[in-house]
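dumping these here so i dont lose them again. two proteins, back to back, each one seq then structure tokens. dont judge the mess
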Amino acid sequence: MKTWFWTLLVFVAAVALALVLREHSGNVLIIAQPYRIELSLTLAVLLLLASFLVLYIVLRVLAWISHSPGRFRSWRGLRAEKRDHELLENGWIHILEGRYTEAEKDLSKVLGRTRSGSRKVLAALASARAAHHMGEFERRDEALAQAREHASENIRLREAASIVAAEMYLDQNRPQDALVLLQPLQDASSRYFHATRLLLRAHRQLRNHDRVYELTRLLSRRGVIDKAEAQQLIEVSAAARLRQGGPENLKSIWSDLKSDERALPDIALAAAAIHTGQGNHDEAAKVLEAALNVRLDARLLNAYSQCPPEHVARRLSKAEEWLKTHPDDSALLAALGNLCLTGELWGPGEQYLLRSMKLRSDMRIHALLGNLYDRLGRPADATTHWRLASSVAGVLPVLPASRALPAADTRGDPTLIDVEHLPQAKVLSTLETPLAASAADFSDYAAADTAADAPAAGADEPRAAAPATPKAAGDDVSAQEEYFDSSPFVGIDLTQTSDRDTSRGSGNH
């Protein structure tokens, strides 16, 4: 559009000049002794225009000739820059494709030919990454040294070289060297999010749980880390801080956690372990209950079932509330069985353990049943279950513990190995839901505890097989009631948890 405008303007000027010259038909007289030149005005104007045009063309040609060396150098520079860009592009494509040898060849050409410091830095960093992937760490370090040398005057390139080197050091499990490069960037500005993530990774490798917790909080507030990943890192680091801090720092660390974070399994287990170690079983129960109200984790249930006998009643009541909403949870049934064994409720304990084994037959259930049957004077059944438990434990692999892994599904835990293919112990053919263990009547059996502790006569002798004799229905009911009311808690008043009338004397049934 601009070209057309100027062309039209020149034509308009030419037409106007022609009209002016036509109206003024004068002469131009040039006297230069001994010459006298007389021209028409029109011819004189045309000659002046032609002279200006010729002079302009001559000057332009002379200028073009005088600037030829500069143009040639510029042309060579553009050609070299295009070649460097092509080699850099091919080198990065080879790195992305995994052809590191070809990438190093192209990048070495760039390092040897280019005169640009920035392109040398980029080529050296790319070459270092290719050598790192090939395991050539000496060549990688040489390339990194070249990159730092050429980037000494450029702040951005120097920071880029530090970040790339730190990332490769972390891949090589050299977190201390990575910290030396990353810490200045973090101190300069906390908005280096990639550098902050690498710093978090370095502190995780060094097991600096305090710094992991702080950096995870920082990245979570900025929204540059996934919520699930942040929760996992906070769970692992906070649990480690609790274990390292001990009872002295429990209050400060616990108050720094959010309510939903306190219910995470690892954190709840660490806090409960500290309370238990201090003898605060009620506080430990509250911590575990808050976490179990969110999710019935098998590890939490196992910890919840470990308590002194005087705390069994309260925990049984709470666990039976969870059983109403989760009747088919194998870990919950196993925890109830363990609590019953601690409180010497042999009948309900066996029923809970058998129900749990029916859902998930594993080593721990067999071990608990073996202990129960041994306590009841049934050595054959006890030996059978102990054999099943030991046969599974003998083939378990030794797995490395990793606190950084998320909480796994307990059904896939190696300690819960199904042993249904092994010989099974004789169990009840029908597993009915037992009476709530917390509602059992213990007042009528104060003297039964002494009798249960005494070894039965001939308990170690093999029992002779007796012919099965039919029993009346009333006898089965009375025998079952006597079985489930086998022994009381020691030192616990559970009359408030009983569903039956406890006002009767110990001799009235």
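---- next one ----
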Amino acid sequence: MSEQYLYPVTPPSSVEVVGEESLYNVNRIFCVGRNYLAHASEMGVAVDKSKQEPFYFLKDPSTLIPSGSAISYPPQTSNYHHEMEFVVAIGKSGFEITEDEADSYIYGYACGLDMTRRDLQLKARETGRPWDLGKNFEESAVISPIVKASDSGIINEGSIELTVNGQTKQSSDLNLLIWSVKEIIVHLSKFYHLQPGDLIFTGTPEGVGPVEAGDQIKGKIQGVNEIELTILR
């Protein structure tokens, strides 16, 4: 007897893969907080890698939308921010992964936008509450097609940029990540059994800022891809 459900089953979230007909089905979305020194500074927080560990928040896979989407300005915020990110797609299961092994778990890379209701995030931060209302909401995770690591090679450096209406807002390099991709995979796999389909948004560089209805957001990462998002009027 086949299983029956009370409501229609939602199809799994997925991402296109360059050169592949099959889609990358998404399991979880991990996001690394404050992983560029300059961004941490602009958020009023000091990061000392020698004394601190990386920290994470999650976005539900249902928040994921493809590059090129046009979306409405989200509800209950008046300070809606862009955050350009380098995304790592995990390709096999692993737990307590070593640094020497870390690269072998990477399926590919993508450009991502961690769209943020900044006023709600800061309100939660000030009261010591979770960031969910500011980070984990509909259409808040934007992603480009994935470029396979077997095609791109392992990426540890390269420019990461974002423009709003043609004006550069974020410009940095992946080699300025506080915790490298290898270090993130090693650390995260101490707490979770990583699985194929897990995405890691590795953090945003400085220059985050508000967007308004009618804005056109474009980003790119050297050797990876480009990403676009339109905020509808």
